[in-house]
Amino acid sequence: MIEPFDEFGVDAVAVPVVRCRGELAELNAAATELLGVARRVSAAELARCVAPPDRARWAAVVAGAAGQPTVVGLDGPPPCRQIECWVRPADPGSDAAADVVVTLVDVTERERLRACIEPFTLGVGFFDAEHRTLWRAPLHGEAPEELAVTEGTVSLDFVHPDDRAHAERTLADLLRRPGEQRRMVLRVRPEGAEGWFPVECHSVARPDSQVVGGVITRWEPGSLDGEDETSPRNLAEVSSEGLLLFDAGGTLRYRNQRMAVLLGERAGTAGPASLVDAVAPDHRPALLEVVEAGLVGERRHVVVAAAGDATRWIRVTCVPVDAGRGGHGVSLAVAVADVTEETEATAALERARDELWHRAHHDQLTGLANRAYLSQQLATAVARHRAEPLAVALLSVDLDGFKAVNDELGHRAGDQVLVEVAARLADVAGDGRVVSRWGGDEFLVLWTDEDPTTLVAEVDRLVGEIPAAIRRPVATDAGRAVVGASVGSIIANGEEPDELLVAVDAAMYAAKRARTGGARP
Predict the structure, then answer these.
(1) 161 CB contacts (<8 Å, ≥6 apart)?
(2) Is a pLDDT exceeding 80 seen at residue 200?
(3) Of the residues 149, 196, 335, 411, which has the maximum number of CB atoms within 10 A of its CB?
(4) Distance (Å, whole) CA 503 – CA 514
(5) Nearest Cα residue to 420 out of 476, 468, 361, 464
(6) Distance (Å, rounded) from C-alpha 435 to C-alpha 370?
(7) Under 8 Å between Cβ of 333 and 243
(8) Helix 108-117, helix 340-361: angle, nearest 10
(9) What are the distances in angstroms from CA 106 to CA 57, 103, 112, 187, 366?
């Protein structure tokens, strides 16, 4: 038999841990909650917690054969939790290969975030204030190894020394400006010749975490100085961007070959007759606005969708030219670049930023606001309550009989009850209220109203409707579950946020004692 886990010294540890020996396994409290099985189970029953495609990898883990951390999915309806398994011998001095301890780490959000970025063919990464790479998607295509940064490396190591100070200043400025973005053109020096790449950097920092996301948008090996013929026309012809030159009357004076490709004009085909025709109809007004601004001396740019292909995006930049100072009759230069990959990568970064924010402020199981977010909103509401006529209400909802559900039907059924209760609570509370899973089977509801009378009436309604909504039976995989609810409420009257939390907790327990006659529910 496996010795009691308490003697092994990990039962009180909050990290899920499983000890395996042959056909038996024992879990600490955190592991039982994560996997939804009993404290002591057979190896076969434990394996059934893992998604079928990953069970071979799981078998290697519990046999002590995994040489590195292994990620497996838990069995269940998608999206399934992803668990990283770290294995070590239970007794370092023992030769028993099957006697192992497996530490489990829930990496669901990390893997979802990685999957969001991995498909893109650009170099995409997140790095912190010290420029350390937190993680990155690989840079595909023909690019030097210097650009293939890995997790843990300093993200600016591959930048040419002459450009590094500029890059560091730009990133430091971004970290002070959450939500903004900067574009840099930096050099890298692989073996052979210098190369250049533009970098779009987006600050996705939150008040409690400084993070920047960067996108390497294009790799251009070779020097930008030209070799033999360096006339403006020759340089324009080798440019990766399309170029149009117009005179003061709007007559086209020059168009390079790259522009013909971007406009879809190829040998033997008519193609669009103008830049406006090359843009999706809905985006043409925005393009014309930028062109007109350029004709009156204002430099502007716009990103628009290409005509006939909603998945292709182009950036149009209009630059006024002083015709009397070397402009040779040219009054407007229009540069056009295909920015489809950059636009898609920017959208991916936005989704990743939203994902990070949601993960930091919401409960993973129920999707409700978490303790941190409700605490922030409560502090804001109390500050407004003191500064202006604003009524603040706080409700505490504690489930009655939830422990019996866990004991009789299992933790998986308990999770299903919590998810259903959260949905019912949010539905009864209605829009405009912060509904939070405060911890375990306790929930808080916070809202404000400029009319105290309306707020008091709404408190009375919720105190009456919430218990009835929660008492309805919940169908779980293990059978029908029924729980009750005790509700306490408090209306702010100048208290500090911590004082309101203590008061509403006391009100909830008073309601619980009144309902049970002082007995434990």
Answers:
(1) none
(2) no
(3) 149
(4) 17
(5) 476
(6) 9
(7) yes
(8) 170
(9) 16, 10, 12, 39, 16
Question: What does the pLDDT read at residue 176?
Answer: 73
CB–CB of 336/274 below 8 Å? no
Q: What is the pLDDT of residue 152?
A: 52
Average pLDDT score over residue span 251-274: 59
Q: Write out pLDDT tens, residues 170-180.
A: 777 777 776 67
Question: What gap in Å lies between CA 476 and CA 102, rounded to an integer?
Answer: 29
> Are 318 and 332 within 8 A, CB to CB?
yes
Confidence of residue 466 (pLDDT cuts 50, 70, 90): very high
- What are the residues facing 338 on neighbouring strands? 314
- Do 284 and 307 touch, CB atoms closer than 8 A? no
Which band of pLDDT confidence, cut at 50, 70 and 90, is reported for residue 255? confident
CB 5 within 8 A of CB 29: no
* Residue 425: closest CA among 404, 444, 449: 444
Mean pLDDT of 153-158: 64
Contact 463, 400 (CB under 8 A): no
Residues 353 and 361: beta-carbon distance below 8 Å = no
CA atoms within 13 A on the CB side of 175: 17
* HEC letters along 296-307: CCCCEEEEEEEC
At 491 the pLDDT is 94
Pairing of strands 181-188, 82-89: unpaired
3-state SS, 412-435, equals HHHHHHHHHHHHHHHHHHCCCCEE
Q: What b-and-e string marks burial along 197-228, b requiring 16 or more CB atoms within 10 Å of the CB?
A: bbbbbbbbbeeeebbbbbbbbbbeeeeeeeee
Question: Element (H or E) spanning 251, and its range?
Answer: none
103-117, 217-231, 352-366, 445-459: segment of lowest average pLDDT = 217-231
Query: Whole-angstrom distance between the N-terminal and C-terminal Cα of the chain?
Result: 36
- Per-residue pLDDT at 219: 53
The single-letter code of the amino acid at 13 is V
Q: Exposed/middle/buried for 104, CB within 10 Å: 0-12, 13-18, 19+? A: buried
